[in-house]
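User: Can you predict the 3D structure for this chain?
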Amino acid sequence: MAMFLVERDFSDEVNMSPEDLKQIKQITNGLGADWLYTFLSVDRKKSYCLYEASDADQLLEHAKVVGLPLNSIVEVSRMWPEGAEFAR
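Assistant: Here is the predicted structure, written as structure tokens:
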């Protein structure tokens, strides 16, 4: 599986309950992707989500199903600060 960073812009602050997040995680898994982590901007209007997925189209479908905006998808690799190693 490849790793992707998904950027989302929201018109209002993001306020999701633990149940909302659990439901989104279940949908993500059901579509064959894995939601790894999300960073939320201080104003809570932008998110950066890290996923493992087979391809970008899988994440486009995910955004449609869960009803979330999607501004960009970038395939990324890992770099570990300790050894500055790159890994795919």
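The longest helix spans residues 18-30. The mean pLDDT is 90.
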